[in-house]
């Protein structure tokens, strides 16, 4: 037994100190960092780093002040440290605003202290957010003002190309953050900013509204001078369209053939029988009331022509073209003194001819029958010099 006890030797029953305390305090850290405890440099670095993060998470100003001023902790302080999401110490501190409102003042003091000690206010996280982006959502205006006056750039954008102002305004300003939005706007204007995307959008809408009002005024003046009725301009209650630009952008993605030549199905045709053509011409041409930029007759004649050309024989198409051109020419001469009719049918004939020429499915037949020439002759006989 004596030999066994001698071979085992003394057992070290010393308890390993907790290097990641849940709620570290200055007194606890002062004891653990003292030379008497005997922590290695690596252990001290782990303890100080953990405690520094915890002080920011909880907005613990006394603990943060102790860590940044204590001679034993200072060698292990790294103000540029980031967590797994790339959040810096300032952003971590700002994250806590609103969780405990009674500590918001102390939390703000923590941010100010970190900035004073040299923490980078423009340190981005993994999403490209800097402290100002996070502060715009939760921090009081006083702290945002402090960030702006200590180097935070209001023009820094996230990976999604958003500034701090974009985040709080978006489609509309976040409730309760109106003062923050105003503060950010003024800070950006002082540096030459003229407006963001939302402000630009509102400015464009305002310009379009003013243009619509000006157009209405011009229409009224023209109508009064020429004696043109209000119905010539279309529905007076119709709203001015703000979507023209968006529709144009969508059309840019279409190929030329797809854009001008519809698919060969009945969705792009109007079905008719030869015996119904006189009634169609009466409704579509003779009795049709002209309005500005109304291309319904042109579109209808084009869709009738597609049906006749693609689903019937050449006689159907020829009867349609000849009958339509004769009726249009007759309408011209019967109402030669009415400027609205002349302008309206000049517009519709031009549109009709354009649609027919652009449709590759009709080109061969129309050239063979001389359909293009028949339509052009109306323009030449009435409007030619």
Automatic annotation (TrEMBL):
One of its GO terms (molecular function) is GTPase binding. Pfam families: Ank_4. InterPro entries: Ankyrin_rpt, Ankyrin_rpt-contain_sf, Vascular_dev_regulator. PANTHER family: DILUTE DOMAIN-CONTAINING PROTEIN, DILUTE DOMAIN-CONTAINING PROTEIN YPR089W. This is Uncharacterized protein. It comes from Hermanssonia centrifuga.
